[in-house]
User: What shape does this take?
Amino acid sequence: MDWLFRRLLGALALALACTLVLAGIGALVGSPVLGAALGAMLATGVLVLRDSVKASRLMAWMRVAQGTAPRDTGLWGELAYRIERAFVAGEKRVVEERQRLEQFLAAIEASPNGVMMLDANEQMLWCNRVAAEHFGLDPEGDRLQRLTNLVRSPTFVAYLQSGRYDEGATVPGPLGRTTLSVLLRDYGNGQKLLLSQDITERERNEAMRRDFVANVSHEIRTPLTVLSGFVETLAQLKLSEPERQRVLQLMAQQTTRMQSLVADLLTLATLEGSPRPTADRWHSVSTLLERAKADAIALSAGRHELRVSAENDAQIAGSDSELLSAIANLLNNAVRYTPAGGRIDVNWSRRDDGSARLDVCDSGVGIAREHLPRLTERFYRVDGSRSRDTGGTGLGLSIVKHIVQRHGGSIEIRSEPGVGSTFTLHLPAIRVRTLNASRGADAPVEV
Ligand code: ADP
Assistant: This one.
């Protein structure tokens, strides 16, 4: 209130001075009262003029509100200072609010799920990048467009228009390539919040799991049905000794088939549930090939010409039982799918970059091109009856792929029907080495 006192004092002093001066001049010309009145008017005029000038300067500053407010003394100085402070505080609040909003939007933007805001007319107000990808939208270009004009999936439109959002819905993504789980929530004044999640992978895994269970059940049911038929036969019919022997032999075959299937399933489960083999346990490639070759020779029973060659002293790091299982699977397949008189070549070689490859090449029945990409799927068979007749489970190549991937490698399959097939295991440099390279290690030797 300092300014009020000074202002009143100043106005009083001015009015007094003007009144006295003009009253004095008035007395000289014989009219002191008129002089005093003129003096008072002059003082009022000066005060009004000064206030008007200061007020207009303040108004001019307030219009643009940039820079500092006019620095006056007294009432106008105090007024300008307080208005400037209110302006600054207001601006600071706006900046803080904007920053908070930006942080909030950035957090939603970082969400792995899609978030979209719709107004009461179902027009898109805002969406994050994930939601834009899910629905194939342009977050800026499609703003304020009706969502039903942008997303035309009937399932989605029906869900949006149903008004019942207690539960979510599963809808196809744009072009039908993905599957989305969507959930709507009402908020504010008729606005809606749309949350979306890409569940394509989950759905695919679920379908694979269902297929797997169905396949396993089918594979087990078939030998079981055969076995129960034989059990009934044995129980109800009086068979001759040779007939009985034949039935028992067939029963043994089915039992072996089930045992192989269960063994392969357990192998797959173990592979999936255990950590990758470490790269510090080295095994001789020649020894692994020798052991796999012995199995293959037994299976072939002299019907095939089998040749195996490997770098001398080549070594591989990982799990020897897994690696042996992978190589043996490939060799056994080569024997099983190559008619008698055919040839099987197994060759281990190193590349310049240090990596290695194992080629298992046969002159067997071969595989048509369209089957190649699916061969390593579980239970995928080109010729089901041939596979089963030769004791196959349909899981061999999927086990091989698992094993080689666990060792950082990959499998490549080339084949031509009627000519033969080559299955190649590629192994990374970190998992292969050649001991004592000076002893002519690069020369392949017959195992
Ligand atoms: P299976 O137990 O049926 O042999 P695999 O997973 O080992 O199962 O092989 C999958 C399918 O790939 C086989 O059913 C067979 O049709 C085909 N296949 C595998 N190896 C060969 C091969 N060397 N020559 C021709 N076909 C093969």
About this structure: The chain is about 55% helix and 20% strand. Residues 312 and 441 are 5 Å apart (CA to CA). The first strand starts at residue 114 and ends at 118. Residues 438-442 have pLDDT under 50 and may be disordered.
